[in-house]
Amino acid sequence: MEIQRIGVIGAGQMGTGIAQVAAQAGLEVRLMDVDLKLAQAACQRVDNALTSQVKKGKLEDAARKTIVARMTAVGRFEDLAEVDLIVEAAIEDVAVKCNIFRQAEAVTRPEAILASNTSSIPITKLAAATSRPDRVIGLHFMNPPPLMRLVEIIRGLQTSDATAEMVRAVTERMGKVIVSATDMPGFIVNRMLIPFLNEACFALQEGLGTPEDIDMGAKLGLNHPMGPLELADLIGLDTVLYIGEVLHREFGDTKYRPPTILRNHVAAGWLGRKTGRGFYKYPR
């Protein structure tokens, strides 16, 4: 089976970006959210982003129209019945993701693949919640998907060779660079990233420097394109906290323990760019 139709579940930043990348690769995309208006708004954001590229001379308007035409906003699982691949991009909550997979497998064809964009939850655990564990896989895009080239592909214990081959092929079609990660919490990227973000939070908490100082140190001293606190705000502080809690619980290593300042920001609802305030303030 060649994957031609993709259903993306979750119209947040990640889901919207994945849908855009898939549509740009020539795939038919159905972007689903339980709130249809959110899915429609996400499709409009993609159109706006592509329109900006047209104005800058980076994209022909005819190409923009073609890409946008490949995307359809939907609000029911039943609307995903004909897709070849589901990519769920919901919050980092194992119960939520398992529930999504159960509903998705109830309406899709038996051969359809179920992929999770999870950044920390074991794929084996998600696969065990379905009746087709051999067709479940991890497909972890980096944020934001239209700009970041890397994708982690994670096989659960049950994932078949055929499933892995088909997902690798469609990911390469999207123009991504693939790394294969063992099914362990955090996989490759977040296993390295979370301790770094945590240490930046501890430095801020202890008064080692301002957010601007800490981020500038990383950018000019470590040659990073973005500082750790800026990056945490982009990812979402709630997501950073959740991943840190998973790693701390699963490995029992204190290097993964979330700092109090991170917990307090999340408790205050200061989640980063998506709420207009995190370690920095952002215009809404």
| Topology as a string of helices (H) and strands (E) | EHEHHEEHEHEEHEHHHHH
Physical arrangement of strands within the biggest beta sheet:
3-2-1-4-5-6-7-8
Strand content: 5-15%
Oligomer: single chain
The secondary-structure class comes to alpha/beta
Query: Rounded to an integer, what's the Rg over CA atoms?
Result: 19 Å
CATH topology of the largest domain: Rossmann fold
Number of self-contained structural domains: 2
Taking the sheet with the most strands, its summary is: 8 strands, mixed
Total number of helical segments? 11
Helix content: 40-55%
Calculate the mean pLDDT score and round it: 96
Describe the protein's architecture and organization.
- The chain has an eight-stranded mixed beta sheet with strand order 3-2-1-4-5-6-7-8.
- Helices cover 47% and strands 14% of the residues.
- Helix 1 packs across helix 2, helix 2 (36-55) packs antiparallel against helix 3 (61-69) and helix 7 crosses helix 9.
- Helix 5 links the parallel strand 5 and strand 6.
- The radius of gyration is 19 Å and the shape is globular.
- It folds into two domains: 5-181, Rossmann fold; 190-275, N-(1-d-carboxylethyl)-l-norvaline Dehydrogenase, domain 2, CATH 1.10.1040.
- The protein is built from eleven helices and eight strands.
- The mean pLDDT is 96.
- It is α/β, with parallel strands linked by helices and 284 residues long.
